[in-house]
Specification:
alpha/beta, seven-stranded parallel β-sheet, about 30% helix, binds 2-phosphoglycolic acid
């Protein structure tokens, strides 16, 4: 793994934004796998900046987002759909029809998962997958468990994830209990992976991802088996290495 350690979040924003845009400059019809949360905010800001100053064009790009809450309106301030429009899509030129999300309100969630996998395949697979990591080692909403779930699926969120994510909601009771997420196999099929971690609360998961046993109890540890992973860490997230 290519482990890069930076002094602060600003630098990571520039480095990660450049990395994602570099992919698009090398292959204008790239398929990008995108993530939500606090971690990608600065990288998305930098991607917007590069688009606005004419350095990169997203008009042929296709995107697939990692996950979405179930039973939350897509216009809700906390939906990942809304997050992506507010923080990236409304500011760059990816055609609407090239933007893909799992629908957490689908009538038949299992069919939705199958359709999403088929769409990724039809698009030619994901060229680069951007990932954050949960303090419990989750990637997307693949929570610690006894086995790896291969493809997109519905998941009951762990208490620790509900607690971590409650900072965005009025109260912990408002955090959805279920989500729909790409699986470990879906993520592992991406040609390249960029994972970013900020802050001390990610240090243990990062240590396990890099040095620990590969185990579904730390879903991110499976990335040890991927051949093209870059980690961008701040000093706090790297503090146990
Ligand atoms: P965060 O979430 O970026 O808000 O820390 C990351 C994740 O849970 O994957």
């Amino acid at each position: 793994m290519n482990v890069l350690i930076y002094d602060n979040e600003e630098q990571i924003g520039i480095a990660a934004g450049n990395y994602m845009c570099g992919q698009v400059l090398a292959k204008p019809d790239s398929v990008l796998g995108l993530a939500t949360g606090s971690t990608p905010l600065k990288p998305y800001n930098h991607m917007i900046k590069l688009y606005k100053n004419g350095s990169v064009d997203f008009s042929r790009v296709t995107t697939f987002n990692l996950d979405e809450y179930c039973n939350l309106d897509i216009n809700d301030a906390n939906s990942y759909h809304r997050f992506m429009y507010d923080n990236l899509f409304s500011h760059i030129n990816i055609p609407e029809e090239n933007i893909n999300f799992l629908n957490g309100n689908a009538q038949n969630l299992e069919q939705e998962c199958r359709d999403y996998e088929a769409k990724i395949k039809k698009a030619g697979g994901i060229d680069i997958q951007l990932l954050g990591i949960g303090s419990n080692g989750h990637i997307a909403f693949n929570e610690p468990s006894d086995s790896f779930q291969r493809w997109s699926h519905v998941v009951a969120l762990k208490e620790s994830t509900i607690k971590d994510n409650s900072r965005f909601f009025k109260s912990v009771d408002e955090v959805p209990t279920h989500a729909i997420t790409m699986g470990i196999g879906s993520i592992m099929q991406a040609k390249r992976i960029l994972i970013i971690a900020l802050g001390k609360n990610k240090a243990k998961a990062i240590k396990q991802l890099i040095d620990g046993h590969v185990t579904p109890q730390c879903p991110a540890s499976v990335l040890q088996f991927h051949t093209d992973v870059t980690l961008m860490l701040d000093r706090d997230a790297a503090s146990l290495l």
